[in-house]
Design goal:
By secondary structure, the chain is mainly alpha-helical. Helix content is 74%, strand content 0%. The protein is built from six helices and no strands. α1 (15-40) runs antiparallel to α3 (52-71) and α3 runs antiparallel to α5 (85-111). It is elongated.
Length: 133
Amino acid sequence: RCVDLTPCTRASISGLHVSLLVFTICTMIVTIAVSLIIFKHRDSDLVRSSVPLFLFALLFGALISYTESIVLYFDLNSTICQLQPWPRHIGFVLVFGALFAKLWRIQILTRVPPGSLTVQFLDQRITGCLVFM
């Protein structure tokens, strides 16, 4: 409780906090497992048509977003409070940037006549846009 002008801190970590942390760690493990599965099957037609680079960017953004929950378990101080929103925002940009790039790629591929643009050149241009984000 806050009774004077000193910063407020939480008293202890409850069971809800621990269960949320365990759930976050489990989803991080699943995300890493999915990344390894995509890496293992990167030569299959299904994964190649999905552009593995965008899939990895999406999963990496999700992994970074998950770290926000872990940051909250440290003792709260001004540095932690300033760092806390950054994983969420960086993860958001990576996840939705990758989704936007994939949709943009599909839109270009469906509008351009066949043979007028190579897919590798298109993927390089869109990857550059994703890196710029």
